[in-house]
Design goal:
The protein has about 120 residues and is mostly beta strands. The chain contains no helices and eleven strands. The chain is about 0% helix and about 50% strand. Strand 5 and strand 6 form a beta hairpin. The N and C termini lie far apart (about 40 Å). The model has no long low-confidence stretch (mean pLDDT about 95).
């Protein structure tokens, strides 16, 4: 199995910045595939935010975060990051890290194999 642990969530004012971390480990961790970030609003399905490949450097973002969020990785630390700038109240959600050995292009969280427990991000004045 692969274990994913998110950290870095918290309360931030509109226009502020926050960086989330996702540390991966476990017997099934291979160091290839992709890591992704999803977010979930109350009563809603998890929605895609961003993804990054682990061998090559390819990234994808949902339209609402393009130009504001940056996904990155540090393979030596088995960690992915989501740098969130110019945060808006509508960015408030529980953010989840996901991993899949093959999947990269799917926006459907159900196709991703492993998930962290989530970290709360609240954007409010």
């Amino acid at each position: 199995q692969v274990q994913l642990v998110e950290s870095g969530g918290g309360l931030v004012q509109p226009g502020g910045s926050l960086t989330l971390s996702c540390a991966a480990s476990g017997r099934s961790w291979t160091g290839y595939g992709a890591l992704g970030w999803f977010r979930q609003y109350p009563g809603q399905e998890r929605e895609f935010v961003a993804a990054i490949t682990l061998i090559t450097i390819s990234t994808r973002y949902t339209d609402s975060v393009k130009g504001r969020f940056t996904i990155s990785r540090d393979n030596a630390k088995n960690t992915a990051y989501l740098q969130m700038n110019s945060l808006r109240p509508e960015d408030t959600a529980v953010y989840y890290c996901a991993y899949d050995r093959i999947n990269f292009y799917s926006d459907d969280g159900r196709s991703w194999g492993f998930w962290g427990q989530g970290t709360q991000v609240t954007v409010s004045s």
